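Give me the fold.
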Amino acid sequence: MYHILLPVAENEAQLDAQLDTLTALPGQGELRVTVLHVHEEIDTMPDEAGKSVINSINDVIDELQGVPDTVERAAKTVESNGIPVEVLTRQGKPTDCIIEVADETDSNAILIAGRTRTPVGKAVFGSVTQGVILQGDLPVIVAG
């Protein structure tokens, strides 16, 4: 099995590009996918007493935001193509979480969405995509 990590944000167009790319990959019968959504947390350097307040705020944000519809749509689409799928959520810095989950799940590649840009701007990726490419050890497939 070839394991693909599919980090999913709330952007429908980016998800469409990721799913189009995923379904175009060869060896569909040998794929398995982990869909990942990362809730970005408030990141400050409070004193010891302030940490519990920040953690509480992050927990409330997670409850209010929930998991975006794109995550469920990604999982259903992957599954409907006969590909085994798992869904994970994490809280933290997106780049760090994506790289950590890729390692934890023994992924073989990361399929991430690029941002829509002008022809010249396509040479420059979004900050999360760029971070995953530069900081990670795995092949990164950028759907655009």
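The chain has five helices and five strands.
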